[in-house]
Design brief:
Layout: E1 2-11, E2 14-24, E3 28-33, H1 40-47, E4 55-60, E5 63-64, H2 70-74, E6 77-80, H3 92-97, H4 101-104, H5 110-122, H6 138-151, E7 156-160, H7 168-185, E8 188-192, H8 196-202, E9 205-210, E10 213-219, H9 220-223, H10 226-233, E11 238-242, E12 245-249
Parallel strand pairs: 3-8, 3-9, 6-7, 7-8
Antiparallel strand pairs: 1-2, 1-4, 4-5, 9-10, 11-12
Helix pairs in contact: 5-6
């Protein structure tokens, strides 16, 4: 369980995250939605300890992320940032193997290599395993980074805009894989998503933020209503049920 209590993060006089309290239960997919500047990525960054909070606490299964040794936390929680960039030239296999570092310290065992192969196969990267990242398309590269996170073998996976820079087809494929990853491996996946329809179709829970605060939280059925979405985005959004899923229409 991830417990966020009264978390605040300020930049100058501006509270980007303003006293947020939130509990994320184990299992399934939780999507965090909201307009630009709502505090979504900053909150995720605080939860993953990439950014220190100015106030409040975050615990993961009782471990305080601010004080827990990094290697111990990295065996329980994995994070994929929005701006992924490697300063060295790596192959897909080498990148995915980085996911084993919290467990192996860089000295991979036979069991580690098996998990690397499993993650590569799970994200259908076998034909690309020995190609360098700069030789891949954006969608292929993103799959490689998520395979690295899967290979880390943690209970909790935090993803900041995993659909960033992906076209429609690759976005659909990525969301299907993340949904399947949560179900097949029993992981708790928490992600920042801009597209409300991807959140609706693939999430168990949606958390809505606005101006640094959580203004609504619930199941997709509870959150995908015109009233909730209009409050989140200050935009008239109609909601229609199509194929048993709630779809927001905001072009009219």
């Amino acid at each position: 369980m991830i417990e966020i209590k009264d978390v605040t993060k300020r930049y100058g006089d501006t509270a980007v995250v303003d006293g947020v309290s939130l509990t994320i239960a184990p299992g399934g997919v939780t999507s965090i939605i909201g307009a630009n500047g709502a505090g979504k990525s900053t909150l995720l960054s605080v939860v993953s300890r990439l950014t220190p909070a100015d106030g409040g606490t975050v615990t993961v299964d009782g471990m305080d992320v601010a004080t827990t040794p990094g290697d111990r936390l990295a065996r329980r929680l994995a994070v994929l940032r929005q701006d992924n960039h490697m300063s060295v030239r790596l192959t897909v296999r080498e990148l995915v193997a980085f996911g084993r570092f919290p467990h192996s310290g860089g000295r991979l065992t036979a069991a580690d290599h098996e998990l690397v192969d499993e993650a590569i196969d799970y994200f259908e990267l076998g034909d690309l395993a020995d190609r360098h990242l700069d030789q891949l398309s954006g969608g292929q590269r993103q799959r490689a980074y998520v395979a690295m996170v899967l290979c880390q073998d943690t209970d909790y996976v935090l993803l900041d805009e995993p659909l960033n820079n992906l076209d429609m087809r690759h976005s659909v494929q990525m969301m299907r894989r993340l949904r399947r990853m949560a179900d097949d491996y029993g992981k708790t996946v928490v992600m920042v998503v801009h597209d409300i329809n991807f959140a609706s179709c693939h999430s168990d829970t949606i958390v809505a933020m606005k101006r640094g605060s959580v203004i609504a939280r619930g199941t997709t059925a509870e959150m995908m209503t015109p009233e909730v979405l209009n409050a989140v985005y200050d935009l008239d959004i109609d909601v229609h049920e199509i194929g048993g899923r709630r779809i927001g229409v905001y072009f009219s």
